[in-house]
Amino acid sequence: MTSALSTTKTIRDSAIVLRTQDLGEHDRIIILATRQRGIVHAVAKGVRKSSSKIGARLEPFMLVDISAAPGKKLATISQVVTRRAYLGPIINDYTRYTVAAVLAEVAEQLLNHEQERLEEQFTLLAGALSALARGSYPPHRVLDSYLLRALHRAGWSMAIGACAACGSLDDLTYFSPSLGVLCTGCARTGDFPQLSPLAPEEPAYLAALATGDWPGILSEHPPALRQRAERHIMDYVQWQLERPLKTLTTLEKEI
């Protein structure tokens, strides 16, 4: 990412602040998900001073327009304009905040590897944060739907409506974190690690999440089904990313 930025005189892009790191006494490194460039690491000088005019605009989950000068390792932010201030309503609700933290961590991992569908991933993340901030839907349902849709756009679609091994539409009774749903026959005869039981209604519910079918998502489902589906989604995400999610520890206390 740094080398790509170094070919541009000035960076101008829409961005979502994913996280920050303190730098020195007064500065801060801002990790941004941008619409056109993916992940950008930039330094915001003096933003930890009480007199800073842009510090509040560069907090996590803010949607901003930025101007920055590229550098060898870090860009340097020169101008920030707030487009959507999602932080306030998110940080004031613990569940929304923990969900947003997982969104940001997954988005950073996906965009670090994404080259072709940056704008789609950016738009999807912005929509999820907007839904969280507005309270449009239950926070965990926003997260589950975002994860399945973001992974699909990254080329890691979960097998949901048919057995991942043989394509059968019937007798879908097991879940594999590496592939998705499996039929009984394949689960018993194949070598699939970490298999877990699949609830009969779970494929239909997962399909609603994966397509953003909110009437289907919000229809009456037993809490145990929602919890099982979310655990399966989290297992699948971490398998595809090949790393545990740091932010999941806090979230799992609520599942």
Write a structural description.
This protein has 255 residues and is an alpha+beta fold. It has two domains: 2-85, OB fold (Dihydrolipoamide Acetyltransferase, E2P) (Beta Barrel); 89-251, Recombination protein O, C-terminal domain (de novo design (two linked rop proteins), Up-down Bundle). 41% of the residues lie in helices and 23% in strands. The chain is built from ten helices and eight strands. The strands form two sheets. The protein has a five-stranded mixed β-barrel. A three-stranded antiparallel beta sheet has the order 7-6-8. A hairpin with a 3-residue loop joins strand 6 and strand 7. Helix 3 packs antiparallel against helix 4, helix 3 (94-113) runs parallel beside helix 5 and helix 5 (139-153) runs parallel beside helix 9 (223-241). The radius of gyration is 20 Å and the shape is elongated. The two termini are 35 Å apart.
Number of helices: 10
In CATH's first tier, which class of the largest domain applies?
Answer: Mainly Alpha
Q: Count of DSSP E strands?
A: 8
N-to-C span:
35 Å
Function: Involved in DNA repair and RecF pathway recombination.
Protein name: DNA repair protein RecO
InterPro entries: ARFGAP/RecO, DNA_rep/recomb_RecO_N, NA-bd_OB-fold, RecO, RecO_C
Keywords: DNA damage, DNA recombination, DNA repair
